[in-house]
UniProtKB/TrEMBL annotation:
Name this polypeptide is given: Uncharacterized protein
């Protein structure tokens, strides 16, 4: 059973795998890359080029978590940037 948390990024609702269920960052990224690959396959109807994950797929998975961490850690700053307001300096 996989626990999934729903996070809202801009106007799209995206689902991510629970980070706390993995013992290493590398496993988390590989599983996430496979899930994202499946999502792309289902949406586009195109099969992946090969069985092995590409560097681009791994980078995309890592970027998703960086964005998630930023949204969790800096919600006020992101809202200010979205509203074109001045952001207070980080100290």
């Amino acid at each position: 059973m996989v626990t999934v948390a729903t996070l809202t990024a801009t106007n799209n609702s995206q689902e991510f795998i629970d980070m706390n269920r993995f013992s290493s960052f590398q496993k988390l990224i590989r599983v996430t890359a496979n899930v994202l690959r499946c999502i792309h396959y289902c949406r586009n109807g195109r099969k992946p080029a090969g069985i092995e994950l590409t560097i681009q797929e791994m980078t995309e998975a890592e970027t998703e978590y960086i964005g998630t961490c930023q949204m969790t850690s800096y919600p006020e700053e992101i809202q200010c940037l979205t509203d074109n307001k001045k952001v207070s300096p980080l100290v």
